[in-house]
Amino acid sequence: MSAEGTRGHAGSEPVPAVRDAATVPAREGRPRRTTRRFPLLTKDTARPEGGGRAAPGDAPAPARQWPVLVVLSAVALGLLLTALDAFRYGSLLIGAALLTGAAMRWILPSVGMLAVRSRFTDIVTYGILGLAIVLLALMAQPKPWLQIPFLKDTLHFTVTK
């Protein structure tokens, strides 16, 4: 089939090829003007930037997705430590895994399935969640490793007898 399409009935003008909704022929038979507007109905979503393979296509599947496997393995180990009653170390490992994911998303050009949204959104999301988990693990009771003085005053201000 040529780019112009196939011929109509008995030698009439060629019928334009339909490539997408913007190239559907109008009533006169000419293709409609293409538009830069978003379509009314989306049929697919765009791959996030950096969402390509992290290794060549002929590599085995785990090697192509090593960034997300590193983050998930560290989170799984952190959950295991938390289940074995080392909650502070496990929580720190989970937070560090998310911070590592943010760093990999920032530095590496392709991170496979670790890319979920835009690069900026992924970095901010992984970074804020990782930092929050690390700070909460450091401030967890009993015997917190990190003490922020104004938090105690805030608690006494909000909870009165």
How is this structure best described in words?
With 161 residues, the protein is mainly α. The chain is 46% helix and 0% strand. It contains five helices and no strands. Helix 3 packs antiparallel against helix 4.
List the helices and strands and how they pair.
Elements: H1 61-64, H2 66-83, H3 87-107, H4 119-139, H5 149-158
Helix pairs in contact: 2-3, 3-4
Computed Rg? 27 Å
Q: What string, H for helix and E for strand, traces the elements in order?
A: HHHHH
User: If helices are DSSP runs of H or I spanning 4 or more residues, what is the number of helices?
Assistant: 5
Q: Give the mean pLDDT.
A: 79
Overall, the morphology is: flat
Q: Which strand-content bin applies to the residues?
A: under 5%
Distance between the termini: 83 Å
Structural class: mainly alpha
Write down how many β-strands occur, each being a DSSP E stretch of 2 or more residues.
0
Largest sheet: none
Proportion of helical residues: 40-55%
Taking pLDDT < 50 over at least 5 consecutive residues as the criterion, the unreliable ranges are 1-8
Question: How would you concisely characterize the structure shown here?
Answer:
This protein is mainly alpha-helical and 161 residues long. It contains five helices and no strands.
